[in-house]
Amino acid sequence: MSNALDEIVTLIAPLNRKGVAVTPSSTFATDLEWDSLTVMDFVAEMEDHFDIIIPLNLLPDLETVGQVADAVNTLIEKKNG
Amino acid sequence: MADLFDKFDPMIRAREALGFEDTSPIDVVMEQIISPTEAVIKGKRTILAGTNNYLGLTFDPRCIQAAHEALDAAGTGTTGSRVLNGTYTGHKALEAAIANLYGAQHCMVFSTGFLANMASIGTIAGKDDVIVIDADSHASIYDACKMSDATIVRFKHNDADDLDKRLRRLGTGANVLIVIEGLYSMLGDKAPMKELVEVKNRHGASLMVDEAHSLGVFGETGCGVVQEAGVMHDVEFVVGTFSKSVGTIGGYCVSNHPKFEILRLAARPYMFTASLPPSVVASALKAIEILGSEPQHREKLWRNARQLHEGLTRAGFNLGAAPSPVVAVKIDDRDMAVRLWEQLLNNGVYVNLAMPPATPQGLNLLRCSLSAAHTEEQVKTIVDTFERLARSNSVLSQPAA
Ligand SMILES: Cc1ncc(COP(=O)(O)O)c(C=O)c1O
User: Fold this and answer.
1) Least confident of B117-121, B167-171, B222-226
2) Beta-carbon neighbour count of residue A11 at 10 Å?
3) CA-nearest residue, atom 12 of ligand 1
4) Overall number of domains in chain A
5) SS3 for A39?
6) Residue B204 above 80 pLDDT?
7) What ipTM was assigned to the predicted interfaces of this complex?
């Protein structure tokens, strides 16, 4: 099982304008106060970092950092077959 | 139970924080329309510099006469869907005229441009397909994606290499529909059409171009950016609207796909809404004829666009893109954008105030759109008013060179 969480937390850092402590339960909308565009741009960054495709269809279910890490782990495993 | 509207509290607070003194954009009422470029707002004669009325055809006597005649001959509305009682001779003639303009086999007309995107994108791409959209796509494209059962992927705005990268990652399994716009409505920047088409062809995908802001504006006969770039026959679908250059309301999609006509039975936003009223169809048909055969309106539009772009650049403003009929003035500070917008209005110039999330990159924009119907004098007044107000608010410092 790959673990993307630490790398995702690192990717969040430059966009963490509020300087909140990022944990798996942090939410993008409420804790990080990101709007929908910021979330989509961050998705693009993760796609490039992990060399995967994260369809926008997944976004409604990705409210927390932990949920994103789980989804990314699954996508990486799928890519590696 | 909580209030259904509680979810809007952040939006309500954000709106209250904007601090308009007297009028916000949603309070603007056009009390009297004087011409395509002038209206009375708050009792004051105002230059309209934000109406997307690119060719100024809303008052063209030929369009008005055609609408009058259709109104008298066929009544105020069709009271029905295109697939029931709502297809008149006019609808078929309009579809034929647009297909002819594009040299395409098929055209479907819809009740708005928003619905054209809903119907075409939302229906063409199904469960096993992928839609790849430009990140800065219009809301109607995003919503069409939501309506479709396809997998949705976004690529970096106007970046052919990024599109290439994402198509490579997707692999060769699924059918891919790429959706882009010709001219992007917020910043007025144009798609790098040739590069995007090249990437599309290399991956064997299909391309849909939304020419909402570019119909009538680009290309020898006004077909849009696809025509200007010489790639009409490399683009599988073009969608557009009658609500801008055509000066009325409605939308269309053209294609050479041999099975295209099945959309008339498959596209719910085509079937389950009433068709356009005869008068609208008649003025759209006349306007399509005019935009295809009278390049002088396009030429005048571009002279106005260059004059505004040059004037604002010389004054020291930071603009969104190279000259085009959409000229977006970037204002760093949000509160200043709000204040300038309201002062422009109070000084007789109406532009669009555009803010995130409707704008890319978190930009605050005073968005102008030009018309062929603007006079040189009006464009000068727009520039002068911008400059005077920006200086009095210390947005611009140095006097003009
Ligand atoms: C790119 C784009 N597509 C579609 C539309 C929708 O057009 P309509 O006003 O006909 O619904 C617009 C206009 O707002 C647009 O800018």
Assistant:
1) B167-171
2) 16
3) B212
4) 1
5) helix
6) yes
7) 0.90
CATH number, domain of A47, equals 1.10.1200.10
- Per DSSP, chain A holds a count of helices (H) and strands (E) of 3, 0
- Number of Cβ atoms within 10 Å of the Cβ of B318: 13
**Nearest residue to B184 via CA among B333, B26, B325, B336:** B325
Q: Return the DSSP state at B275.
A: P
Q: Which of B135, B166, B356 sits opposite A53 (nearest CB)?
A: B166
| Residue numbers of the domain that contains A67 | 5-79
Residue whose CB lies within 8 A of the most ligand 1 atoms, among B121, B138, B190, B245, for a mutation test = B138
Residues in contact with ligand 1 by the CB-under-6-Å rule are B 112-114, 117, 138, 140, 181, 185, 210, 212-213, 241, 243, 251
Q: CB of A57 within 8 Å of any CB in chain B?
A: yes
Mean pLDDT of B108-116: 98
Quote the minimal CA–CA distance from B357 to chain A in Å: 7
Kindly report the pTM of this predicted structure: 0.95
The SS3 assignment for B55 reads coil
Top CATH class, B75-293: alpha beta
Domain ranges of chain B: 4-58+295-392, 75-293
Q: For B4-58+295-392, which CATH class?
A: alpha beta
Rounded (to 5) percent helix, strand, coil in chain A: 60, 0, 40
**Mean pLDDT for the stretch of residues B134-151:** 96
A57–B357 CB contact, under 8 Å: no
